[in-house]
Amino acid sequence: MRAALAIALALAPTAARAQDERPIKPDPRAVAAAREANLEPESVREGFAIGVAVGPAVQLAYGIGTATGSGAGFNLRLGTVASPRWVWLLELGTTAFPHGGTANQSAVVTFGGQLYVREAFWLRGGAGFSSFTRRAGNTETEQFGGLGALGAGGFDLFRRRGLAISAEGATTLALYRGGSTVIGVSLQLGVSWY
Q: For the domain bounded by 48-193, which CATH number is listed?
C-alpha cells in the first residue's frame, strides 16, 4: 500500500506538469502588431489613400422648398493611413436632386476617419462644412452654407494589395441658415487605393 501511495505521489506532479505544457495559442492581432513593431509590415493599407464612390441617392430637405427627391450621390476622399485599422480622411460627399428645370445639390466637406472594424468591414465618419446650391440652367439661383457631417459603413467586396472595391452606404447631414436641414442617403459602389 505504501508503494502504491509513493508511486501515485511521484506521478501526480508529472501529470500536472504535462497539462501546463500545452502550447498557448497566441492572439492573431497581438502577433500582427508584434511583426509590425519589428519592422515586418504586413498591412495592405499604407501611405496615401484615395477613394471615389457613386450611386443612387435620396435627398430629404426640411425648410428648403422643392429640394426633396431621388437623384445621385458622389463621394471623393483623400487621406493617409495611420495604422493597419485607421485612415485619416478629408472627404467630399454630395447628393443631387433634379426638379423641373432646376438642380438641387447639397454637399459636405469633412475631416474624419475610417476604422476597419474587421478585415473587410469598416465605418467612416467626419464633421465639417456644408453648401447648398440650386441651379436653373447654368445660373445659380440660390446658394448658402452651414455645418455638415458624414457617416458611412461598408464592406470590401474585392481587395488586391492596395486596391479595394466596396459596397457602401453613406449619409450626409447638412444644417443651413434658419434651421433648414438636408439629409442625403446613398447606396454606393466605391473604389479605393491605400
A: 2.40.160.20
Cβ distance 57 to 185 under 8 Å?
yes
In sequence order, what are the beta bridge partners of 61?
182
**Which residues are 154's β-sheet partners?**
122, 168
**pLDDT given for residue 12 in this prediction:** 62
CA 88 – CA 151 distance, rounded (Å): 14
Task: Look at residue 184 in the predicted model and tell me its pLDDT.
Answer: 93
**pLDDT at res. 14:** 58
In the block, residue with C-alpha cell 433634379:
98
Cα gap 188→95, rounded to integer Å: 12
Type of residue numbered 54: V
Element (H, E) at 35: helix 28-37
93-134 tens-digit pLDDT: 999 888 777 788 899 999 999 999 998 899 999 999 999 888
Cβ–Cβ < 8 Å for 161, 131: no
